[in-house]
Amino acid sequence: MVGGLLVVLLGILIAPLPGPGGVPVIAVGLMLILKSSFWAKRQFIRAQYARPKWVYPFRRLMRKKPEFAPVFWQQALRAEKVVLKRPRRRLTRARKKLRRYFRKLFR
């Protein structure tokens, strides 16, 4: 648990720097705390009932074989949806263009 707390503190120190460096570090620290603390597990279950859409990405990352790329892609799409209006969203269109390109390439 102490290791998890140290990682969270490191993430908080990194957070003011440019880029998203602090957020993933804090998430890893919270997962370490969750694995070792009964109190944290109870709080996590309460949060899961209260806000299932917020907790689901953490649950996916804590599996035995986590899928990092799909989780981060889904979160990027959610963040884009919150920040930008529909005509300015670029990630979905970029993904579709890449799919078309690779389909043509591997035919």
From TrEMBL:
Keywords: Membrane, Transmembrane, Transmembrane helix. The chain crosses the membrane at residues 6-34. This is Transmembrane protein (PGPGW). It comes from Brevundimonas intermedia.
